[in-house]
Amino acid sequence: MSCNPAFTALSQLEGNIADVERWGNTLIAIGTTDAHVDPGVVLVLGWALKRLGDDLDIEWRTAFEAAGGKP
Fold this sequence. Notes:
- The protein is an all-alpha fold.
- Helix content is 76%, strand content 0%.
- The protein has three helices and no strands.
């Protein structure tokens, strides 16, 4: 593993990026079923995706700055 701060910051993005794909697959599965989806379920999914997006934004800014980018 590299000691480069940019590598460390970018590698921390990996889990959340994979989670975006997993959430996408979850929504596809929900959207392709004939079953009724309770609005509360959609609300919970929305909040989870919002938190994930917030986390990705923080991690991206950290990685960008570690790579020498200016905020």
